[in-house]
Amino acid sequence: MSATATGRRALPFLVLALVAAGLAALSAAIGDTRLDIVAATGDVLAGRQTLAALILVELRLPRALLGLLTGFSLGLAGAAMQGLLRNPLAEPGIMGVSGAAALGAVVVFYSGLAGAFALALPLGGMAGALAASVILHALAGRGAGVLTLVLAGVAVNSLAGALTALALNLSPNPYAALEIVFWLMGSLADHSLADVALVLAPMLAGWLLLLASAPALDALSLGEDVAQSLGFDLARVRVRLIAGTALAVGSAVAVTGMVGFVGLVAPHLVRPLARREPGRVLWLAGLAGAILTLAADIGLRLLPTQPELNLGVVTAIVGAPFLLVLIRRSQERD
Amino acid sequence: MAGRATGMGRIAAAAIALAAASTGAAGAPTQRIVSINMCADALLLALAEPAQIAALTALSHDPRNFSRADEAARFPATAGRAEDVLALAPGLVLASAFTAPATVSLLRRLGAPLRQLPVASDFPQLRAQMRDVAAAIGQQDRGEAAIAAMDRRLDDLARDMPLPPLSVLALQANNIVAGEGTLADTVIRAAGLTNAAAQAGISGYGRMSLEAMLALAPDVLVIDADGDNAPARANRLLHHPALAALTRNGTRAVTMPSRLWVCAGPDLVDAVAHLRASLRQEGE
After folding, report:
1. Which residue of A48, A163, A315, B35 has the fewest CB atoms within a 10 Å radius of its CB?
2. Which residues on chain B are in Cβ contact (under 8 Å) with A188?
3. ipTM value > 0.85
């Protein structure tokens, strides 16, 4: 492959990475309080414990980082699910993986386990996401149609929602319902660097598993028989993708709550850039997911609403019409 | 449908008959009072003779929710549903303005004598409410005595322990802060302090980001929480390093058990006393 061809292939990746980094920086620059970002950065570097430095490091930095990490996880997981299931509507939110992860986190939290050790919360999220993925793949089976798969997602989603409601019903804390309703709406606000550190390792592990499946996804786009004849062990690919999704989405949801539709929209946006090769879509969809999440999180802070809107509300308002358009398109194709 | 309507009608007739019987003699204390609101429970315990009370809410039997749980536990509890209440043939039902509308309208339709208490958020409103309830249950004298006792305690507190006018931010779960016109605002002002959230322009209960709290940098952070409470996601906020940094920079953090200031009642003075006492301890 010539140098220019490699350059051309790398260009979309570079552009998206730069936009994501720029948005992360912008996210750190805006907030409730007016902050001289340059002076604050100076204070941080000089080790001065000023209010500005405190706000920048303890509040805005984790927010921007979580936006990047969560967005990348959701976009990447969405692309992987769409590639594996060969279904344009597959996405952690619609398929119930996020809902099940939320259930896992809620159960861990209100059972008091979360206080026992820090990793319990992300582990709960991952366990929920894993259970949902396994159920989904068992239900959907091989080559299931769009409808079957979406119905399976609806079933998993409603089961997870009902069990979450049950856990809240049984919680000894009278405010549990209120706070979990807020949390389920998804938010990057007021997290700490400790939260970021907590989810970083499982997320990166999940990303590696998903990204390593790129060649298999490319082969799968030609059909299962072709992929198998090319030497891919589909059972192993499936396991890897399920585990990767559970790690990435489970830990993201456990911290930020439910941020829907990013995993649906991101892969579709970048597919033209990836010449429709599912493997190439993975990286690009991750970056696009980070961009969408950060942009939504910046947008909601620029809106004059008081209190600020929750991130999941904004992504749903933007994402749900997108889903309708996709359904409409797949109807026309059928 | 018709059978059910007749059944309902029969219950209603029975309820009306009983209500009429129990309030028969003019001026006599109302009997068989049922409260279906925890704050009304507190008012009843303070104002009614024990013999007048037929039932309180199950909530007030839990010492985590209710300061006088021991006293409340001497009375039967209901879950506050219309059926439980009617079965007690109440002479008066006390509910809050925020009691589920379905329950209130059903009780009214079935003829139960029901009084919805408005939410009192300051001491003048509280005194008016105590008078109002005392009159409704035929215990005017006890009402005046309870008000006088409460006012005496307030005066004693104000004289006893002068505090500098510190700015106070009252923080609850989920970033909710108590602004102007809230019960917490009343307690803060009665303790001789200023409410930072009210000064920041928040009226009622509002959400405030951690960032705004840091910028506000109040002298005192009153955390509305119980140490032994069930796990709450919201309490995670209180362990955020940014809040810890705030307390390092000179903000004092004190806790207030929610049960002390969740209700407007004669025991609200306990919240004022608690706030002042914990600030004095912290200050020494």
Report:
1. A48
2. none
3. no
> Out of A110, A114, A189, whose CB is closest to B209?
A189
Contacts A306 to B, Cβ<8 Å: 206
Residue B278 has pLDDT above 70, yes or no: yes
> What's chain B's average pLDDT?
85
> How many Å separate Cα A53 from the centre of its chain?
29
For B231, the closest of A32, A112, A308 (CB atoms) is A112
Q: Residue A112: its chain B contacts at CB < 8 A?
A: 230-231
Query: Rounded to whole angstroms, how far apart are CA atoms A43 and A316?
Result: 38
Closest Cα of chain A to B37: distance in Å?
15
pLDDT of residue B50: 95
Average pLDDT over residues B226-247: 68
Residue with tokens 């709960």: A124
- pLDDT-derived band of residue B65, with 50, 70 and 90 as boundaries? confident
C-beta atoms of B174 and A182 within 8 A: yes
Highest mean pLDDT among A86-95, A110-119, A152-161, A204-213: A204-213
User: What residue in B sits closest to A56 (Cα-Cα)?
Assistant: B211
Residues of A with Cβ-Cβ distance to B214 under 8 angstroms: 33, 51, 54-55, 59
- Cα(A97)–Cα(A139) distance, integer angstroms: 14
Q: What angle do CA A103, A108, A110 make, to 5 degrees?
A: 95
Cα Rg, chain B, nearest whole Å = 21
Whether the Cβ atoms of residue A85 and residue A288 lie closer than 8 Å to each other: no
Q: What is the pTM of this model?
A: 0.81
Q: Is A294 helix (H, G, I), strand (E, B) or coil?
A: helix
Measured CA to CA, the distance from residue A81 to residue A137 in angstroms comes to 10
**By C-alpha distance, which of A16, A137, A134 is closest to A75?**
A16
How many Cβ contacts (< 8 angstroms) between chains A and B?
82
Residue B199 phi/psi, 5-degree rounding, is -65, -30
Q: How far apart are the first and last CA of chain A?
A: 38
Q: Check A179 against B215: CB less than 8 A apart.
A: no
How many angstroms away from the CA of B161 is the closest CA of chain A?
33
Q: How far apart are CA B92 and CA B81, in angstroms?
A: 15
| Distance from the Cα of residue B60 to its chain's centroid | 11
Please provide the distance, in angstroms rounded to a whole number, between the alpha carbons at the two ends of chain B: 70
The set of residues, in sequence order, having a beta carbon less than 8 Å from that of A87 and lying 6+ positions away, is A81, A146, A149
Give pLDDT, residue B226: 62
Chain A's closest residue to B202, CA to CA, is: A306
Quick: pLDDT tens for A211-270: 999 999 999 888 888 888 999 888 888 889 999 999 999 999 999 999 999 999 999 999
